[in-house]
C-alpha cells in the first residue's frame, strides 16, 4: 500500500492550489485520511483530516481557507487551498490512519501510512 501525493507548486499569496493523494494497492477500505505539513525548522503539524464518513477537522490557521474531501471509491483525498499565505509554505504530506487491503484470499491491515510529500511555496 502506497500513498502518492501531487499538486504542489509555487503560487503567489492569495492564490489557490489543490493537492491530491491517491492510495494504491488492492485496497478494501481506508479509515481516516488527512494532510499534514512541515515548514523548515518546524515540527510536522496537522492541517486537516476527514473520516470515512466525511466528518472533517481543520487546524485553526487554515479554517475558512482550506477544504478537505475524499473519494472513497477511488481511495483519494484532496486538499483545496485558497487564499494562500506565505506562512502556508511547507512540505505537505498525506496520511492514512489505517488501510485494509487484501492479497489473494488474505485480508491485511496496516496503520499510519504516509505519502512522500509535496512542496507548496507561497510567495509574497
What can you see in these coordinates?
This protein has 124 residues and is mainly β. It contains no helices and twelve strands. It has strands spanning 2-6, 9-12, 17-24, 27-30, 33-38, 45-50, 56-58, 66-71, 76-81, 90-103, 106-114, 118-123. Strand 10 and strand 11 (106-114) form a beta hairpin. The radius of gyration is 15 Å and the shape is elongated. The strands form two sheets. Strands 2, 4, 5, 6, 7, 10, 11 and 12 form an eight-stranded mixed beta sheet that branches. Strands 1-3-9-8 form a four-stranded antiparallel beta sheet, with no helix packed on it.
Distance between the termini: 38 Å
Radius of gyration over C-alpha positions, nearest whole angstrom: 15 Å
Q: What's the mean pLDDT score?
A: 96
**Count of DSSP strands:** 12
Count every helix, treating DSSP H or I runs of 4 or more residues as helices: 0
Low-pLDDT residue intervals, each spanning 5 or more residues? none
Write the layout of secondary structure elements.
Elements: E1 2-6, E2 9-12, E3 17-24, E4 27-30, E5 33-38, E6 45-50, E7 56-58, E8 66-71, E9 76-81, E10 90-103, E11 106-114, E12 118-123
Parallel strand pairs: 2-12
Antiparallel strand pairs: 1-3, 3-9, 4-10, 5-6, 5-10, 6-7, 8-9, 10-11, 10-12
